[in-house]
Design brief:
By secondary structure, this protein is an alpha+beta fold. It contains 12 helices and 9 strands. It has helices at 17-33, 35-41, 46-54, 73-86, 88-107, 110-122, 237-266, 283-309, 311-315, 322-349, 366-375, 381-394; strands spanning 127-130, 138-143, 146-153, 164-171, 177-183, 189-191, 208-216, 223-224, 227-228. Strands 1, 2, 3, 4, 5, 6 and 7 form a 7-stranded mixed β-sheet that branches. A two-stranded antiparallel ribbon has the order 8-9. α4 (73-86) runs antiparallel to α5 (88-107), α4 (73-86) packs parallel to α7 and α8 runs antiparallel to α10.
Length: 404
């Protein structure tokens, strides 16, 4: 990074949700300085992750007794939006970190939750995840007191810049998926530099080879005496990560609007036949900005509302019912569909009101669309709309899967 470093140790740690969002805005301002250059170079974002650590943002959901922020998911989502407005890749990395940090609470035993959160919060550790449920490409062998992971994942977001990696595989001879958290530098993990997509270029989402990674059964998330105890809360990983997606899509869209607004104010020329001296006075320009901003504000409000609705579940995880979980997933599906459409519309639409010169690579305005377009293909948005339609017409809730 070429930004001016901040000595975060000399600043007070935020104690409120608004304080943490303000801290995120400070970090976002630093990330924005060289975001265009960073996107072009595509270098591994070690410095950017260090900034997330030094600023304390990685500890946002951590227990206060271990130096964490003690915040809840609505604040985490807003923080992700702030970071993504400057750099969609770093916003995604932070959002995934929060999900994998929280994974212990979703799946783990009480003892595992306590150990993981103390370790990660105290040391400001950063999480990545080698989890790709579409492929049965990692096999786990039971060797008594230990299990051994072998295989390859085609995606492993954030792992090259992480301290801890969440592994997932299928126990040999069964259909049981087993999650475990391991140090990212453990022997047997090889992260490949093969992420070469048009957007989200700094997410380090390349493949990973897993060769004989040995884990104690005691570290297998949620397993006691080699038996997994199901909870409805286990299935909340999907709606939680989908809301992470929603919020970095919206952050990217806001970043595009703000960047375009600055360009229009400072560089755009009015159309020579329009009869106006300034671009900011042209009626069609005003209409487009008003239209896109209104749509963004509406989906942001819905996203915040759905996040607040989930607090009942997160605060009492062992009392959630299948129906409550299903109705929440439908709401998440609805906002995911709207966020996808609006983010794509905004990141493409800003070119209508910035002009031909705004397509110069030095402006970097294209990165917002490339980032949104890349990640919104994660899972088909049509199936999110289908979940909502089935609920409305047949009063059926989605069956928990890896994507619903």
């Amino acid at each position: 990074m070429t930004t001016t470093e901040t000595d975060w140790s000399k600043t007070e740690t935020p104690t409120t949700a608004e304080g943490w969002v303000s801290r995120a805005a400070e970090v976002s301002a630093l990330l924005a300085v060289d975001a265009v250059t960073r996107d072009k170079e595509g270098k591994t974002p070690y410095a950017e992750v260090r900034l997330l650590k030094d600023s304390g943002l990685v500890t946002l959901l951590g227990p206060t007794e271990h130096g964490g922020g003690g915040q809840e998911w609505p604040t985490a989502y807003r923080v992700v939006r702030e970071i993504a407005a400057a750099d969609g890749s770093i916003g995604q990395l932070l959002g995934y970190h929060y999900l994998w940090f929280w994974a212990a609470r979703l799946v783990g035993t009480p003892e595992q939750i306590t150990a993981v959160e103390e370790l990660a919060t105290t040391n400001r550790l950063f999480f990545g995840g080698a989890v790709n449920p579409r492929d049965s490409d990692v096999t786990i062998t039971d060797e008594g007191d230990t299990i051994v992971y072998n295989g390859r994942k085609s995606f492993s977001t954030g792992s090259r810049v992480s301290d801890l990696t969440v592994l997932e595989g299928v126990l040999e001879g069964t259909d049981k998926h087993v999650f475990a958290i391991v140090p990212s530098d453990i022997p047997g993990l090889t992260f490949h530099d093969d992420w070469d997509n048009i957007g989200q270029r700094l997410t380090e989402s390349g493949g990973v080879t897993i060769d004989g990674v040995r884990v104690d059964w005691a570290s297998a998330a949620g397993y006691v005496d080699k038996t997994f105890t199901p909870r409805v809360y286990n299935t909340l990983n999907v709606p939680t990560i989908q809301l992470v997606f929603v919020n970095f899509y919206l952050g990217i869209a806001r970043g595009a609007l703000e960047t375009a607004r600055t360009y229009t104010r400072e560089k755009s020329r009015s159309w020579l036949h329009g009869g106006y001296e300034r671009a900011v006075d042209e009626p069609y320009v005003l209409d487009v900005y008003g239209d896109l901003t209104s749509k963004l504000w509406a989906v942001e409000a819905l996203a915040d509302r759905v996040a607040e609705e989930a607090l009942v579940i997160h605060r009492a995880p062992d009392r959630v019912t299948e129906r409550e979980r299903g109705e929440h997933e439908v709401r998440v599906a609805a906002v995911k569909a709207r966020a996808t459409d609006v983010a794509l519309e905004i990141t493409a639409g800003v070119f209508e009101v910035t002009g031909a010169r705004a397509t110069a690579s030095s402006e970097g305005l294209d990165r917002f669309w490339r980032n949104v377009r890349t990640h919104t293909l994660h899972d088909p948005v049509a199936y999110k709309r289908r979940e909502v339609g089935v609920f409305v017409l047949r009063d059926e809730i989605p069956e928990p899967t890896w994507y619903s």
